[in-house]
Design goal:
The complex is a heterodimer of chains A (296) and B (608). Chain A contains four helices and ten strands. With 296 residues, chain A is α+β, with helices and mostly antiparallel strands. Chain B starts with 18 loop residues before the first helix and ends with a helix.
Chain lengths: 296, 608
């Protein structure tokens, strides 16, 4: 039948001459070699194999979650692992299916036509409802930890005020009267001290642009926004000295906006506060000389 | 151009189609109206394609400079070193912040968005729906030419005092609104905002045109549910653009007036930057984030949906099989687009936004994973039971599916608000969006280029070098981006010029060096692509109308199609994916093929 002049064109171009269709099943495309189909499917098999291997090996080389030293950190890490396992299973399953289909349904491996099918109502329902239920469960499962970390603020006065500015962390401890904004406030830069096993409430502010108060070992991160006072709280579980990182781009010196946080016993913490107090009195520094964010 | 009368449709008046070919005039005005200020959607599409590929190269080189600093901070920079002569050849941190800002801005606004909608949308929409051009050809021409002021503003910003914008592509105020807060917040930021506005104008002209064309200009018989997935994706993307873009444009103007005439939309009272009072005050920095992400989250889908559509078409052609679940695929695109408007807050979990709102956005975000999952399962279903031909286009399309799985799953970590606290603004998110946008969209774009190249230029790209290009890109991209998940797990923050002075991150330099080597390999691999592209344009094997034996309408037109596209009026009898119909003598029934007796029997059997 010559009902269609486009047959003239079908399969005529695009491929080097001599590779005209000649299969037992004529789909008009040149039949590739079986080994190349195998090679390409194996390439895609590398994705789940190397992908999983990377995640398995990384912790052994210390390329993994930094040591967690806070109460919230434990539950956040727990959720991270939960999602890692869940997504890991889906990742492996789908990538292996993809590999298997590529291996099996290579045109070079069969002379049969492709299956003529437009879909399956049942399958669509199944693979809509199962992920929907899983995702909904996942969302609900996160809520309690989120509320603990960001919503159930401990009933206490702020332990310290952190004022971010380009490119340092200005800390203000309330001093002996335990009230911020009074004569006896203590001022420190970039050197946060925290008593162990106690709720610690930070009042986070910014003087100039956005910053983000990031304590990797505490799984704490909160943007500091000029004009806002944002509460951040955590409870340290292990003594030591850890990093404070700025995680929101704040200008050219963003990379060096570095602080340290020292977790110590209550006794050591009090000793340190007394030391700061003595230093401050000796140098006659008063709060009026330290600019603080005006939107107090 | 030969005109052949078709039995199934009336011959078209081809007189004006011959215009360009027969005149053959060499006069300047003809040259300009044919190749420069052309109103032909195909020429405009190719103009978009060439422009965006050039910017793709620039964006890639910017990325390499970023990677150099991350891997070997403060070491002498090759090539760029001359710029830093007074700093002993080292990159200065101001320059680094500018680099990552402009890498992202160029890639998003000058490459991904215009290459999908501008290049492929323009070229494919009239061809695939059987129209002779867009509904508004002049508007279409303008949509391309409005990109040029954007090219100019972005390009010029590198050379003004203080350099190009350096506040991140998200341009969060007050860093971006206060001219004293950073060198790049001067003239560079103003030019950035102007460029963004021009890109917006261009996109808006395009999307109005695409919507109108798809609604009004479909060939006889081309019902909405016979449209190829590419067109469905372009259609829904155009709607998304039209509704989301005005918000960004308005926000951009607000930021401009904050900077230029002293309004205070985004700067709070009494802000002291660089020891100087800044701005009028009374504003709220978070307002910008809400407005920005109200556009930029839907924009994420603007940057992937068209690629999903193209991949669906390519998978069916080379699996010789109907698309699995056509309607669920359409509905899931619509679902992604609809939900896309109510998830913007997931960029702001730790921004200081009310944490209760974070819960709402988490639930919405988890739900948007659903249509993405449905799409992935349907792609797997499409390959299942097929006859897969491993052409270059098919390999890129399959890798889109494989990589999108990774990018989709890693998104769940960020959607979970407590986990996001730790990985927010770390390399985990960098890994996530590069898997979606590079390993996803860019691979989809390459699939599209290899697939539609014969239609664009009448010749086929070299398959061997295409596969070499695919293999190397695939290996290097995973070497570069998969390892970023691991950096993210350590908490390695993005946008730091040097993170190794932190105790937590000091041991990560070797891994970063490995990633930078892979990134260099990835960029170098594109030389193969460039040579193949230009060589094949002039010397590649001549392609017929339908080199892949595909079904959709563009393959009934000549390669390349002349002005007016079709030499007969296409009439559509069926959906776009009728491959391997049992009892049919050839394995594909084009949309224009007259009804076939085997069809009804096969359809009855398939639905039994």
């Amino acid at each position: 039948m010559d009902h269609d002049n486009r047959d003239r064109n079908a399969g005529s171009g695009g491929f080097p001459p001599g590779k005209a269709p000649g299969d037992s099943w004529a789909d008009g495309l040149p039949k590739g070699r079986r080994w190349s189909g195998i090679a390409w499917s194996l390439l895609f098999l590398l994705v789940p194999v190397l992908g999983t291997a990377t995640f398995v090996i990384a912790p052994y080389y210390d390329h993994w979650l930094p040591k967690d030293v806070s109460v919230h950190g434990k539950s956040i890490d727990g959720l991270f692992y939960f999602i890692l396992v869940l997504t890991g299973v889906v990742f492996l399953a789908t990538e292996l299916i993809l590999f298997w289909f590529m291996w099996k349904y290579d045109a070079a491996a069969s002379s049969k036509p492709a299956t003529y099918i437009h879909g399956s109502h049942t399958l669509e329902v199944v693979w809509t409802i199962i992920p929907a239920a899983t995702m909904l469960f996942l969302a609900i499962y996160q809520m309690n930890t989120w509320a603990d970390v960001k919503m159930r603020r401990p009933r206490m006065a702020p332990s310290v005020e952190v004022v971010a500015r380009q490119f340092e962390w200005r800390l203000r401890y309330p001093g002996r009267d335990e009230t911020l904004g009074t004569e006896d406030d203590l001022f420190v830069v970039n050197d946060l001290h925290v008593p162990i096993d106690e709720d610690f409430l930070v009042q986070l502010k910014s003087m100039d642009v956005l910053h983000s108060f990031f304590l990797p070992n505490f799984r704490v991160k909160q943007d500091a926004v000029p004009g806002m006072k944002i509460p951040v709280w955590f409870k340290a579980t292990e003594t030591g000295t850890y990093d404070i990182v700025c995680a929101e781009v704040c200008g050219w010196g963003h990379y060096k906006m570095k602080g340290r946080v020292t977790v110590e016993s209550r006794a050591d913490f009090n000793r340190w506060l007394a030391l700061i107090e003595a230093e401050q009195k000796a140098t006659q520094r008063g709060p009026e000389e330290i600019p603080v964010a005006a939107a107090d | 151009m030969s005109t052949v009368t078709q039995p199934q449709g009336p011959p078209k008046d081809t007189a004006h189609h011959e215009h360009v070919a027969t005149h053959g005039s060499t006069s300047l005005s003809t040259f300009l109206s044919t190749y420069v200020f052309s109103k032909d959607h195909k020429v405009i599409g190719l103009q978009f394609l060439f422009s965006t590929l050039v910017w793709f190269l620039i964006g890639g080189l910017l990325a390499l400079a970023v990677r150099w600093q991350v891997a070997w901070p403060w070491s002498d920079v090759p090539v760029l070193g001359k710029l830093f002569a007074q700093h002993g050849g080292q990159m200065v941190p101001e320059f680094y912040t500018m680099l990552f800002t402009m890498h992202a801005s160029v890639m998003i606004f000058l490459v991904i968005i215009p290459i999908l909608a501008g290049a492929f949308g323009n070229f494919l929409i009239p061809l695939m729906i059987g129209a002779d051009d867009m509904a508004f050809p002049t508007l279409n021409m303008l949509s391309y030419w409005f990109m040029w002021p954007a090219f100019f503003f972005f390009g010029a910003s590198f050379f003004v005092e203080g350099g190009a914008a350096a506040g991140g592509w998200t341009s969060y105020p007050p860093l971006s609104t206060s001219t004293v807060s950073a060198p790049g917040s001067g003239m560079g930021q103003t030019l950035w905002l102007l460029g963004l506005t021009m890109v917006g104008v261009s996109s808006m002209l395009g999307s109005v045109n695409y919507m109108t064309t798809i609604i009004l200009m479909r060939a006889p018989g081309m019902t909405m549910f016979r449209l190829p997935m590419t067109i469905w994706a372009m259609f829904i993307t155009a709607i998304l653009q039209a509704f989301a873009l005005p918000v960004l444009t308005a926000a951009g103007f607000m930021q401009l007036t904050d900077r230029l005439i002293g309004t205070g939309f985004f700067s709070p009272e009494g802000n002291i930057i660089n020891n100087a009072m800044s701005g009028a005050g009374g504003g709220q920095p978070l307002l910008w984030q809400h407005l920005f992400w109200f556009y930029s989250h839907p924009a994420v889908y603007i940057m992937i949906l068209p690629a999903m559509g193209m991949v669906s078409d390519i998978l069916t052609t080379f699996a010789r099989k109907p698309l699995f679940g056509y309607r669920p695929m359409v509905y899931s695109i619509a679902g992604i687009a609809g939900l896309g408007f109510i998830v913007w807050g997931h960029h702001m979990f730790i921004s200081g936004m009310n944490p209760a709102l974070g819960i709402t956005f988490m639930v919405a975000t988890m739900m948007i994973a659903l249509p993405s999952a449905v799409k992935t399962f349907n792609w797997l279903g499409t390959i299942w039971g097929g006859r897969i031909h491993y052409t270059t286009a098919m390999l890129f399309a399959i890798s889109f599916v494989s990589m999108f799985i990774i990018g989709g799953l890693s998104g769940i970590f960020m959607a979970a608000t407590p986990v996001d606290i730790f990985i927010h603004d770390t390399y985990f998110i960098v890994a996530h969006f590069h898997y979606v946008l590079f390993a996803g969209t860019a691979m989809g774009v390459w699939a599209g280029i290899y697939y539609w190249f014969p239609k664009m230029f009448g010749r086929t790209m070299n398959e061997f070098w295409g596969k070499v290009h695919f293999f190397l890109t695939f290996m290097f991209l995973n070497g570069t981006f998969f390892t970023m998940h691991i950096l993210g797990a350590v908490g390695f923050p993005r946008r730091l010029a040097d993170a190794y002075h932190y105790e937590t991150f000091h041991h990560l330099q070797p891994l970063n060096a490995f990633m930078t080597w892979c990134a260099m390999g990835m960029v170098a691999t594109q030389i193969i692509f460039a040579i193949n592209f230009f060589w094949s344009m002039f010397r590649g094997p001549v392609a017929g109308r339908n080199p892949w034996n595909a079904n959709t309408l563009e393959w009934t037109a000549p390669s390349p199609p002349g002005h007016g596209n079709f030499d007969f009026q296409p009439v559509v009898y069926r959906g776009p994916y009728e491959f391997s119909v049992p009892g049919c003598e050839k394995d594909h029934l084009m949309q224009t093929d007259p009804p076939h007796p085997a069809e009804a029997a096969a359809a009855a059997a398939a639905h039994a």
